[in-house]
DNA sequence: CAATCCGATGGTAGCGCTGTCAATAATTGT
DNA sequence: ACAATTATTGACAGCGCTACCATCGGATTG
């Protein structure tokens, strides 16, 4: 790391420049555009930086350049496992770049989102990653006025603000229901909690797949605006059973609910999959090791985070993608809970 | 929000001051120390700010004041549910304050931690929150040279760098084992994954409780450095069974492992709690709704996050706590998995 | 060989705010 | 009533960096 700054005090770019025998502005260019320097100067500055242990003052840089090296990330929840994976992808791929991540949590409130976006605008971020495609008109206006690359994540749709990485929740849900139907089930319940826009789209996939088979029945649908928990899965399932006794299968909008349903089945001695098939969504890790193992829809959350950051950074640096919308797809992970019963 | 800045361009503090009929420095003080202004000026500046929709330039502020309004947070994992709760507490209580959170992830590497702390030091944060008490000597030196309040979270110990919020993993674990022993179990297995310092301390609590009862046996201990998953819980349990057939109970260092053990028991037709008691750690939400419901040690993670931020902000603003170490304790949540069998 | 262009470098002038300290006004004590 | 004290306020001078434009050889061109 080179010799630490001694009593002399602050190491500024000027000091580096002096030691390297160049002008401060040349030293500055060393950081921002090293290719513009001649080989010799580049090396001289480089060794001066190391020698002095120089660390750039980000505030000064931001003030002078009217830009920051911050990528804002707006997500609706910190607790939801789904976002943990996305965040990991985001932090992993921001590491090693010059950009730092600034996280903000809307708690599923679009008004809070507006407020946060306004805050971000004031800080002039280099780029922005926002969750979903259902911003308010005002939020969209803010995003468009930001003058920086924006990536919407978690889902895809027409009319991106700028770029998008995600997958179709509708298609994923439709595929899951098709699979359940193929197993011969007719009465497929739908369990939904916190009906945010993406969950809403999963419902639409369910509804359309059921309607296509002429099997849609509103009595099969149980939803709530309450946030998801495992316990809630059991509760919703109990509600469903209370409403209609004949149930072949249950599609849960996420894996926590599915696990809750499994536990409730165990409590009620309902054999899975013999008496009831269960399918979840997201494919959290525990789904594979439950007994019976639980079918789910795998989504590429970590990759979503990684791509979002890469796309934003590329765009900041002028490398715009050919296609602004990146569909990461999904995979149906068929497991025991929805398979023809074995043994 | 007042009239937006029109074509006129940038709204600087100078513009606000002009409109309010005061000097720029007075307007500046309006933000940093409003009580120092006379009632009348304060109102005049306040309405000028609203009138113009003024937003302070944080970079300029940081450059001039040699400080930022950033609280750095260093955690070892983004995926671990435990930290999700802590983070929620942190973000919740930083909201509404002037401070913003800068998150960094060490991935359980103490070298990475050193590197991140060095990075933070360069940015002169207003305060810092770091996980655990096992920093390297170098990390401690960096922390001490930071010249800002530091709170260590997740556990407590002697010799805080500055402040601490957490609980004793040793005591919590000891209490859990004592409870299992009280149920009459003698052969209590220990299952541990990713043996980070806090998990290590849980092991020590287990070991000492077992030794006190003259029941400690190294064959009962199965650990790995692999990160925790539910599936891993099953695997470790299988390993334990392969090693010693006689097992009364299993203590898992976290709830994911405990759930994995439960699933493995279901696979092997081992009745819980009749044939085996299971106790986890953290008390994640699903523990209460598993079948049978699973005993765990509840920790106050959200509160830990909240307190950490509050303590740091208070310290930044000169309100130092009387006691630098805050013990948030734990509660043993006794459930079916460790109770005398019913029915 | 002058005209042109280009890559590499430097000088000047702030970016928008606050630390420091001095200056002024208001208040108090004796 | 007058000095001493305490609240308010302001002037000045940067903080450390980069945008912008100017400069200056040297390569390219017809």
TrEMBL record, chains A, B:
Keywords: DNA-binding, Transcription, Transcription regulation. The keyword DNA-binding applies. It comes from the Bacteria. Residues 11-65 form the HTH lacI-type domain. InterPro entries: HTH_LacI, LacI/GalR-like_sensor, Lambda_DNA-bd_dom_sf, Peripla_BP_I. PANTHER family: HTH-TYPE TRANSCRIPTIONAL REGULATOR GNTR, LACI-RELATED TRANSCRIPTIONAL REPRESSOR. This is Transcriptional regulator.
């Amino acid at each position: 790391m080179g010799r630490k700054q001694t009593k002399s005090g602050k190491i500024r770019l000027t000091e580096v420049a002096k030691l390297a025998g160049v002008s401060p502005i040349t030293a500055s260019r060393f950081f921002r555009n090293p290719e513009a320097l001649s080989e010799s100067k580049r090396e001289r500055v480089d060794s001066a930086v190391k020698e002095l242990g120089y660390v750039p003052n980000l505030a000064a840089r931001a003030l002078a350049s009217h830009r920051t090296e911050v990528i804002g990330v707006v997500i609706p929840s910190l607790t939801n496992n789904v976002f943990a994976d996305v965040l990991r992808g985001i932090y992993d791929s921001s590491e090693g770049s010059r950009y730092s991540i600034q996280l903000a949590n809307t708690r599923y409130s679009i008004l809070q989102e507006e407020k946060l976006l306004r805050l971000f605008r004031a800080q002039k971020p280099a780029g922005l990653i926002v969750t979903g495609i259902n911003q308010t008109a005002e939020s969209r206006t803010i995003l468009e006025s930001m003058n920086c690359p924006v990536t919407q994540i978690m889902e895809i749709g027409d009319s991106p603000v700028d770029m998008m990485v995600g997958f179709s929740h509708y298609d994923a849900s439709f595929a899951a229901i098709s699979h359940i139907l193929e197993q011969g089930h007719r009465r497929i319940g739908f369990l939904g909690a916190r009906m945010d826009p993406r969950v809403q789209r999963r419902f639409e996939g369910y509804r359309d797949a059921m309607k296509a088979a002429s099997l849609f029945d509103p009595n099969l649908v149980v939803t709530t605006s309450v946030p998801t928990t495992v316990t809630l899965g059991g509760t919703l399932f109990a509600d469903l059973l209370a409403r209609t006794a004949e149930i072949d299968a249950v599609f849960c909008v996420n894996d926590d609910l599915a696990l809750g349903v499994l536990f409730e089945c165990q409590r009620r001695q309902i054999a899975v999959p013999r008496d009831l098939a269960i399918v979840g969504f997201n494919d959290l890790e525990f789904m594979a090791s439950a007994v019976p193992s639980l079918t789910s829809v795998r989504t590429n959350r970590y990759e979503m985070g990684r791509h979002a950051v890469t796309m934003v950074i590329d765009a900041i640096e002028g490398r715009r993608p050919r296609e602004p919308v990146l569909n990461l797809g999904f995979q149906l992970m068929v497991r025991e809970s929805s398979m023809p019963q074995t043994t």
